[in-house]
Design a protein that fits this description.
The structure holds two protein chains of two kinds.
Chain A: H1 2-15, H2 53-73, H3 83-109, H4 131-139, H5 142-169, H6 177-203
Helix pairs in contact in A: 2-3, 2-5, 3-6, 4-5, 5-6
Chain B: H1 2-14, E1 44-47, E2 49-56, E3 71-77, E4 80-85, E5 88-93, E6 101-107, E7 112-118, E8 121-126, E9 149-154, E10 162-168, E11 175-180, E12 187-193, E13 223-229, E14 237-242, H2 263-267, E15 289-293, E16 298-303, E17 306-311, E18 319-325, E19 336-338, E20 344-348, E21 370-375, E22 381-387, E23 403-407, E24 414-418, E25 424-428, E26 436-443, E27 452-454, E28 465-466, E29 475-481, E30 484-489, E31 493-499, H3 507-514, E32 520-521, H4 535-548, H5 553-568, H6 571-588, H7 595-611
Parallel strand pairs in B: 23-29
Antiparallel strand pairs in B: 1-26, 2-31, 3-4, 3-32, 4-5, 5-6, 7-8, 8-9, 9-10, 11-12, 12-13, 13-14, 15-16, 16-17, 17-18, 19-20, 20-21, 21-22, 23-24, 24-25, 25-26, 27-28, 29-30, 30-31
Helix pairs in contact in B: 3-4, 4-5, 4-7, 5-6, 6-7
The chains are: A mainly alpha, B alpha+beta.
């Protein structure tokens, strides 16, 4: 697992040439974590485009955000999640994987850099788990896993919703139809899942 | 590979369709699997349906990929079909349904464009952040030009529709549903479902986001209502909305605020008002869609985690009767439909938002399908059967249950609906515990398979994910109207189908359905279906008794013969023969396995006798 992760992280760095060497300090989306890394060459928005730099960054960053959620969810079976948490983790996995495809498709359609799923290793957005938190989740079993997963994913989802709020606050952003529909769908799906997770968390035995 | 696929198709075609009694999912033998891809030349397959005509999307809506120019929902009036598009709408003259004629195309950037026709007014939902008051391209440069709400067009001249009014709402309008005033023929209400957060007050006065669902100034936790005088659509305005979400944080029982609370008492922080939650409540704050059944004064609202039943006896003061959350499978609620008797509901789950391929062999079965719900005498909801199309769709096909409406076959509850690139499917939910498919039409994916190009960094043990940037297409909604099924295809155009008989749908049932005619039809504002007295109506019940073994074969044969004999007579002789037959059938009730259906058939025979002159 660890070896594999290193290889993948490496391939991500190769794919996103120079990604880690040019840390973001060049502005961009409000609320973006300062440790975030740039996704590649500077974003160029063609004249007359209905989307903005904030839309492009939103799509690029959300790919990493989703990818971490999928990694977290795929731990559930091995780590002995209870049946409800397992079902929810599968739902999140199966929901967010095609959403990554949609985001990559959107970026490619507009000739923007489309990060792959390994970008979650190098990008830290709102609500994403730290390396230590990820390690704790990987090592947790049973009830401890249920708790860490639910707490972590509630925070993770709240971060995604914050990213959408920030997107719509950015002048002119969120108008391109696919980006608009996608961003609203993220809020709808993840708001509902936060409610479900709060209920599941309340049902866990006291610590 | 090609050869193998051909063999697989042959094998699939050779499978004799059996009477489905239970859902099997997913079937590796379904004829819909592995259809040839293509935008205009995709492979097709059908059961109990036949494509009568296909009308391609007009050039005005056919310029770029993505959702900007996709078709959305349908509305029906006289001999016109109003087909909405994210960039406007088109009006089809279907006087000859085999050759629809494009009457007009209106370019007006208005995602998603959910349409409703009432008289000569066409209402269109506007939600996207790039919609402008002037319908123009290029997005919103100045927030005061932003249009989010409901546009009203005058379509009295269908060749030249005119924009009469933009009614702005705080959350915009993802969809809307028309409810006529029960007391004033000149007044209709639009229940508006907005999916977005409330707009800033700087953009639209009076809009406010808040966390207290009971706060009457909070625009977020509210079902918006627009009141329209149909003689003066330019005066249409937003009236105080319905606070149907209060107290839904959690299991979903109606414990407080099940009935309207006066705004004054609530604003004063009076008794019965819960303390505002410091965090955003996790219950629903929007519906995706609401379906009205005006004749029964009911509204079924599909609101995120909850199915909410609402009393609309007074359309200006709707209140919640009951709410049900799917706490087992976590389904989201998208669109509802009532059975004709109002005792059952369907709730669809648009898992993945409609743009994801959620009907693959590996997709979870418990998500992305239809849930049947029954209503008890107190209108409390109970979750029953679940249905998802049994085919294995590809990674290139966005697929999930979507919009539909009832097919008026007497004695059965049939629901035809679009499943995006899963095609059009007809579900039988007569038995609330055993929903099954009786027909379908499907095309292959618009896009061919793409090479694996998503690295599976996050997917240590999962199969590689295929495909990128697929064209979003398929059936947005499929509806039965006056004898035919209409489907709005997002990317390709409009389909019109005829129903064709088979073991699970008889010629008599199809003929009986054709007897139900509506001058106008908006699927989310459900009309009551009634059938005139007719031999095909009686024979529909007889066919159903033969199919389900609800009455002994020698009796169904005898009744068949008696009906044929009666039909051969005329006037008083026919009426007399029918009355005699009804008496015979009365006696069959006791020994029948499906006595209720036999009783219904007897009463239909009597009704036919009474109508015979």
């Amino acid at each position: 697992m660890m070896a594999r992760r290193h290889i993948l992280a490496l391939s991500a760095l190769t794919l996103l040439a120079g990604a880690s060497s040019r840390a973001a300090a060049q502005g961009g989306m409000a609320g973006m974590d300062h440790s975030m890394h740039k996704m590649g060459p500077d974003i160029v928005i063609p004249k007359g485009a209905l989307y903005t730099k904030a839309d492009v960054e939103f799509m690029q960053m959300m790919i990493a955000h989703h990818a971490q959620a999928i990694v977290m969810s795929r731990l559930a079976e091995k780590n002995g999640a209870n049946p409800q948490v397992l079902k929810l983790s599968r739902k999140i996995d199966q929901s967010q994987m095609p959403e990554i495809t949609i985001m990559q498709g959107w970026l490619r359609r507009y000739n923007q850099v489309a990060p792959d799923t390994s970008s979650w290793h190098t990008v830290r957005m709102e609500g994403m788990l730290s390396d230590d938190e990820m390690k704790a989740l990987e090592n947790a079993k049973g009830e401890e896993f249920n708790r860490l997963y639910l707490v972590g994913m509630i925070k993770h989802h709240a971060g995604a919703i914050k990213m959408v709020e920030d997107l719509f606050k950015s002048p002119g952003a969120g108008q391109e139809v696919d980006a608009n529909v996608f961003a609203n769908d993220v809020v709808t799906a993840q708001t509902a899942e936060i409610g479900i997770m709060r209920n599941l968390l309340a049902k866990l035995p006291p610590k | 590979m090609r050869v193998l696929r051909g063999v697989a198709l042959l094998l699939a075609a050779a499978v004799v369709p059996t009477l489905a009694s239970a859902q099997t999912y997913p079937s590796s033998k379904d004829p819909r699997n592995n259809l040839k891809p293509g935008r205009m030349d995709a492979g097709t397959t059908a059961k109990n349906m036949k494509l009568l005509s296909f009308s391609p999307k007009p050039a005005q809506f056919d310029t770029v990929r993505g959702l900007t120019f996709v078709n959305s929902d349908l509305a029906f009036g006289t001999h016109y079909v109003y087909q909405a598009n994210f960039a406007g709408f088109q009006i089809w003259d279907i006087a000859d349904p085999a050759k629809p004629v494009l009457t007009s195309v209106v370019r007006c950037i208005t995602s998603q464009g959910d349409p409703t026709i009432y008289g000569t007014l066409l209402f269109i939902s506007a939600e996207g952040a790039g919609n402008r008051n002037d319908c123009g391209d290029g997005g919103v440069q100045d927030p005061k030009d932003h249009m989010a709400g409901v546009r009203i067009f005058d379509v009295s001249n269908p060749k030249a529709p005119k924009l009469v009014k933009n009614v702005q709402t705080c959350k915009g309008s993802h969809t809307h549903t028309l409810v006529p005033s029960p007391t004033d023929k000149k007044v209709v209400y639009l229940y508006v479902s907005g999916q977005q957060a409330a707009r800033p007050e700087t953009e639209l006065a009076g809009c406010k986001n808040g966390t207290d669902p009971a706060d009457p100034t909070n625009s977020l936790f509210q079902l918006d209502i627009i009141k329209v005088n149909i003689d003066h659509p330019e005066e249409a305005k937003v009236i105080p909305g319905a606070r149907i979400f209060t107290g839904l944080d959690g299991a979903g029982e109606c414990k407080q605020f099940c009935e309207p609370v006066s705004a004054r008492r609530a604003a004063a922080g009076g008794r019965g008002r819960p303390a505002p939650d410091p965090a955003m409540p996790t219950g629903p704050r929007n519906c995706h869609d609401v379906t009205a059944y005006p004749d029964q004064h009911l509204l079924a609202a599909s609101c995120s985690t909850h199915s909410i039943l609402v009393d609309i006896s007074n359309p200006e003061k709707p209140f919640r009767i009951s709410a049900l959350a799917d706490s087992n499978n976590f389904q989201g609620r998208h669109t509802a439909a009532f059975s004709n008797d109002g005792k059952k509901l369907i709730q669809t789950d648009e898992w993945g938002g409609g743009t994801g391929p959620m009907c693959q062999a590996s997709s979870m079965i418990e998500l992305g399908g239809n849930t049947v719900i029954t209503l008890d005498a107190k209108k409390q909801q109970k979750q029953r059967a679940y249905f998802k199309i049994p085919s294995q769709q590809t990674a290139e096909e966005n697929c999930v249950s979507h919009n539909g409406g009832l097919i008026p076959v007497p004695g059965r509850d049939l629901y035809v609906q679009g499943w995006y690139q899963g095609g059009v499917s007809i579900m039988d939910f007569t038995d609330a515990d055993k929903a099954f498919e009786v027909g379908y039409f499907d095309r292959g994916p618009i896009d061919p398979p793409k090479p694996v190009d998503v690295p599976s960094a996050a997917a240590a043990n999962a199969p590689p994910v295929r495909g990128n940037g697929n064209v979003i297409g398929g059936s947005w909604g499929a509806y039965y109207w006056n004898g035919l099924v209409f489907s709005s295809e997002l990317d390709r155009g409009m389909d019109i189908y005829e129903l064709t008989p088979g073991p699970e749908l008889s010629a008599n049932e199809i003929a009986a359905a054709k007897l139900v005619q509506f001058k106008q039809y908006n699927p989310q504002s459900q009309p009551t279906m009634t059938w005139p007295a007719a031999f095909v109506v009686v024979r529909s019940y007889l066919d159903q008794l033969v199919r389900n073994g609800g009455l002994a074969t020698e009796r169904t044969s005898a009744i068949d013969a008696a009906l044929t004999a009666a039909e051969g007579k005329s006037g008083a002789a026919r009426a007399s023969a029918l009355r005699a037959l009804a008496l015979q059938v009365d006696k069959d009730v006791a020994g029948a396995k499906d006595g209720a259906r036999v009783t219904k058939m007897a009463s239909e025979i009597r009704r036919l006798a009474a109508a015979t002159k």
